[in-house]
Amino acid sequence: MTTETAVPGTGVLAAALFDMDGTLFDSEPLWDVSLADFAERLGGTLSAEIRRRVVGSNLRDTARIVQEDLGVAADVEESAAWLLERTRQLFALGVPWRPGAQEVVRSVRGRGIPTALVTSSHRVLVDEVLAQLDPGMFDTVVCGDEVARPKPDPESYLTAAERLGVDPRDCVALEDSRPGIAAALAAGCLVVAVPEDGAALAGGHGAVVAPLETVTVDRLISLLADRIG
Questions:
Q1: What is the Cα–Cα distance from 156 to 153, expressed in whole angstroms?
Q2: Between 28-41 and 59-70, two packed helices, what is the crossing angle to 10 degrees?
Q3: CA 9 to the chain's CA centroid
Q4: Where are the domains of the chain?
Q5: Looking at the keywords, is Hydrolase present (predicted)?
Q6: Tens digit of each residue's pLDDT (9 = 90 or more) over 123-151
Q7: Which pLDDT score, from 0 to 100, does residue 216 have?
Q8: Distance separating alpha carbons of residues 32 and 193, to the nearest angstrom
Q9: Sign of CA dihedral 127, 128, 133, 135
Q10: Is residue 12 very low, low, confident or very high in pLDDT (cuts 50, 70, 90)?
Q11: Which residues, including other chains, have CB under 8 Å from residue 9's CB and lie 6 or more apart?
């Protein structure tokens, strides 16, 4: 794929980097089910507060946080493996796009701008989603279990930019959670936050907050140029 040659940091959009769960795909309701099942398996009930707290977290931290909240001393690795398989089963039934998400990805690709899927989810979950999409929709995919330090560490975003051969300062990242926003900002990306509940990210935490339906490729280009200008 070709794109306009850019000098790093000059405001030319070199790549668009997309989070998966809750950003492009409406998978959070499926996580609601698997997490509730996980809590029930541990003999408790998942609270709304803990559900909000684990959004954007990696799988191991999610299992640990739920166990600690329920006061259960179970093996975290075994719990994470159970939660992963339960979620995979749900993903295999189909994961819908969020409204406007497919149009954003297609419009970016239509302008010759490279794309990456950058997610905290494990590869087995990502593969279930990718199997439901047109081949080649993303030029590279970085999964949570393929980096040493998942979000909120910037490694996943830095890895995506490196694979695409671009400077992260010339990338726009679309995210929906605080860990994801922190990761992309630390990598140097311009971050556009598109949470379903915009009030959940009041102040933006360093990101531009916008409804996903209002995001266009021209707006992404303009936002990046404005940051440099």
A1: 7
A2: 50
A3: 23
A4: 15-26+96-228, 28-91
A5: yes
A6: 999 999 999 999 899 999 999 999 999 99
A7: 95
A8: 21
A9: positive
A10: confident
A11: 167, 169, 170, 228
Which strands, in side-by-side order, build the sheet including 140-142? 140-142, 115-118, 15-18, 171-175, 190-193, 208-209
Q: Tokens 């070199």 correspond to what residue? A: 14
Going by C-alpha positions, the residue among 62, 65, 72 that lies closest to residue 41 is 72
Q: Is the CATH number of domain 28-91 1.10.150?
A: yes
Q: Give the pLDDT band of residue 8 (cuts 50, 70, 90).
A: low
Pairing of β 190-193 and β 140-142? unpaired
- Using CA atoms, how far residue 176 sits from 25, 38, 75, 179, in Å, is 11, 23, 29, 9
* E strand or H helix that includes residue 168: none
Average pLDDT over residues 81-104: 96
Farthest CA pair distance, the chain: 56
Rounded to whole angstroms, the Cα distance separating 114 from 220 reads 13
Amino acid residing at 222: S
Report the mean per-residue pLDDT for the chain: 91
Rounded distance between C-alpha atoms, residue 84 and residue 79, angstroms: 9
Q: 15-26+96-228: which CATH architecture?
A: 3-Layer(aba) Sandwich (3.40)
